């Protein structure tokens, strides 16, 4: 492989194939079923550029499982698969061939979950979860610190996050209920017995470029396929099969309702929900490409901490271009259609939300 990689790097094949695969990813935006207006297609091509940016970080810059680095795979300008605006996402490349130690301070963030996963979007192989642990399950020191061993074999004692031989990534989800007043956990990861980063090789770049391009195309196809499936039931929220969520590297303790929304001028989508007893819930609005709308400048989500409740305990959410003056307004932020997500953590039952399209007062 090394000699072949050197040849591919020397003659430019690696780069040419990377560019060709990225070009083919554009076919997702140009599907006959995708929105035809320039605004949403512009968002689609920006989405591909964002995926390219994070893919190069994932598979070129921070791809060595011998020297793992926690980075942010989704944030304010990289959005993937109904990313939660309340989440601080982190990820690192790891391998079931090694063992790792996570060290950290819990601090005050509302929810902390860490999972090990197999496969990646676009990898074409097995995808799923190989281990999971939550903050409430950890043993802590007197100073609030913790250590977690990541390994295939269970240790005799202490915090353990399981891996499998083909484990390839760690994903950390830190979820705020009140971002302004909570501090995320401080976390580091290192390989047991590991050395520092090694010089780059032709094989690293050759394989990384191929994996990055496959990730862009695979991710775009996966979540656009989801949108098309949601669009068969417009303006409804439907329970997502937990096995589909797990295969897409979701949190096993979260129940997800997804849907497709589309409104005419002067219309709004009214959603009535009776969230069960749970650790956390939120509702958010996304664009057609399943990117959360820009929560830096618009109110596009609401959670259990900030939601206004009715006298009978119901939560009324109103998706509209303008504030209706009641319920919990979610701003469409200049969009006429897109996807939406309602999720809750550690609920013992999953009541169905009710959605209806209404006319706004003239």
Total domains, how many? 3
- Overall geometry comes to globular
The strand count comes to 17
Q: Classify the helix fraction into a percent range.
A: 10-25%
* Main sheet summary: 5 strands, antiparallel
The amount of beta strand, in percent, is 25-35%
Please tell me how large the radius of gyration is.
21 Å
What number is the mean pLDDT?
Answer: 95
CATH domain topology of the largest domain: Jelly Rolls
Main CATH class of the largest domain: Mainly Beta
Key features of this structure:
Jelly Rolls; 362 residues; alpha+beta; 30% strand; 4-stranded antiparallel β-sheet; 3 domains; 17 strands
Architecture blueprint of SSEs:
Blueprint: H1 2-11, H2 13-29, H3 38-61, E1 87-93, E2 100-105, E3 111-118, E4 128-134, E5 145-151, E6 159-162, E7 167-175, E8 186-191, H4 202-230, E9 236-239, H5 242-247, E10 254-262, E11 267-273, E12 280-286, E13 301-303, E14 315-320, E15 328-331, E16 337-345, E17 354-359
Parallel strand pairs: 5-6, 14-15
Antiparallel strand pairs: 1-7, 2-5, 2-8, 3-4, 3-7, 9-10, 10-16, 11-14, 11-17, 12-13, 12-16
Descriptive account of the structure:
- The chain has 362 residues and is α+β, with helices and mostly antiparallel strands.
- It has three domains: 1-61 and 199-223; 65-196, Jelly Rolls (Sandwich); 231-359, Jelly Rolls (Sandwich).
- 24% of the residues lie in helices and 30% in strands.
- It contains five helices and 17 strands.
- It has helices at 2-11, 13-29, 38-61, 202-230, 242-247; strands at 87-93, 100-105, 111-118, 128-134, 145-151, 159-162, 167-175, 186-191, 236-239, 254-262, 267-273, 280-286, 301-303, 315-320, 328-331, 337-345, 354-359.
- A five-stranded antiparallel beta sheet has the order 9-10-16-12-13, with no helix packed on it. Strands 1-7-3-4 form a four-stranded antiparallel beta sheet, with no helix packed on it.
- Helix 1 (2-11) packs across helix 4 (202-230) and helix 2 (13-29) packs parallel to helix 4 (202-230).
- The mean pLDDT is 95.
């Amino acid at each position: 492989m090394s000699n072949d990689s050197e040849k591919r790097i020397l003659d430019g094949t690696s780069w040419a194939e990377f560019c060709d695969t990225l070009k083919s990813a554009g076919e997702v935006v140009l599907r006959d079923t995708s929105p035809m207006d320039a605004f949403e297609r512009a968002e689609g091509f920006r989405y591909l550029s964002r995926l390219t940016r994070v893919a190069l970080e994932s598979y070129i810059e921070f791809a060595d499982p011998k020297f793992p680095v926690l980075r942010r795979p989704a944030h304010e300008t990289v959005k993937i698969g109904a990313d939660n605006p309340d989440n601080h996402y982190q990820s690192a490349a790891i391998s079931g061939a090694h063992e790792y130690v996570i060290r950290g301070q819990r601090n005050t963030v509302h929810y902390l979950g860490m999972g090990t996963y197999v496969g990646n979007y676009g990898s074409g192989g097995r995808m799923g979860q190989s281990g999971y642990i939550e903050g409430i399950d950890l043993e802590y020191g007197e100073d609030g610190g913790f250590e977690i061993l990541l390994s295939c074999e269970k240790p005799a004692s202490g915090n353990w996050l399981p891996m499998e031989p083909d484990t390839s990534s760690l994903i950390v989800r830190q979820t705020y209920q009140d971002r302004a007043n909570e501090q995320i956990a401080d976390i580091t990861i290192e390989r047991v017995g590991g050395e520092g980063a090694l010089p780059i090789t032709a094989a690293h770049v050759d394989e990384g470029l191929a994996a990055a391009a496959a990730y862009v195309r695979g991710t775009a196809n996966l979540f656009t396929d989801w949108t098309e499936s949601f669009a068969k039931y417009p303006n409804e929220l439907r329970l997502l099969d937990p096995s589909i969520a797990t295969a897409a590297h979701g949190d096993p303790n979260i129940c997800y309702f997804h849907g497709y929304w589309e409104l005419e001028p002067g219309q709004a989508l009214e959603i009535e929900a009776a969230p069960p007893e749970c650790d956390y819930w939120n509702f958010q609005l996304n664009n057609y490409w399943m990117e959360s709308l820009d929560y830096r400048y618009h109110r596009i989500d609401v959670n259990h901490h900030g939601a206004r409740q009715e006298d009978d305990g119901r939560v009324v959410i109103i998706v509209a271009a303008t504030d209706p003056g009641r319920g919990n307004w979610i701003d469409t932020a200049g969009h006429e259609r897109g996807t939406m997500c309602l999720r809750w953590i550690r609920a013992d039952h999953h009541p169905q939300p009710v959605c209806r399209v209404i006319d706004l007062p003239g």
